[in-house]
Amino acid sequence: MKFNDFFAKFRVSSFEFQVSSFKFQVSSFKFQVSNFKFRISSFKFQVSSFKFRVSSFKFQVSSFEFQVSSFKFRISSFKFQVSSFTISECTGR
C-alpha cells in the first residue's frame, strides 16, 4: 500500500450539542502550592493550513451554574501562536 493510495477526508454535515440542564457546584475549593515552577524554554506548534467547516452548529444550555467560593487563577505571561495548520488530503489510483 502506497501513500498515494491513501484517502483522508473529514466532513461534518450537521453537528448538534444540546444540554437541557447542567449544574456544576463547588461549595469550597482550595488549591495551594507553596512553591511551584513550570517552565518551557521553547515550544513550537506549526501548521501550514487549517480548514474546519460545519454546515450546522448548535450549542444550547437551558441552565448553567458555576459557583466557587474562592478561586484565584493568575498567568503573568502567556503566548500562543499558530502560524499555520495543515490537514492534507491525498488521493491516488
What key phrases describe this protein's structure?
93 residues; flat
Can you walk through the features of this model?
The chain is mostly beta strands and about 90 residues long. The chain has one domain (about 1-30, about 45-70, about 80-93). Helix content is about 0%, strand content about 20%. It has no helices and 4 strands. The chain has strands spanning about 15-20, 20-25, 55-60, 65-70. The strands form 2 sheets. Strands 1-3 form a two-stranded parallel sheet.
Tally the helices: what do you get? Answer: 0
Instruction: Compute the number of strand runs.
Output: 4
Strand content: 15-25%
**Which segments are poorly predicted (pLDDT under 50) over 5 or more consecutive residues?**
none
Order of helices and strands: EEEE
Query: What is the residue-averaged pLDDT?
Result: 64
The total number of structural domains is 1
Could you say which structural class the secondary elements and strand pairing correspond to?
mainly beta
Q: Name the strands of the widest sheet in spatial order.
A: 1-3
Oligomer: single chain
Radius of gyration: 22 Å
What does the overall shape look like?
Answer: flat
How would you sum up the major sheet?
2 strands, parallel
Percent of residues in helices comes to under 10%
Roughly how many Å apart are the termini? 11 Å
SSE layout and pairing:
Layout: E1 15-19, E2 22-26, E3 57-61, E4 64-68
Short description:
The chain has about 90 residues and is an all-beta fold. The protein is built from no helices and four strands.
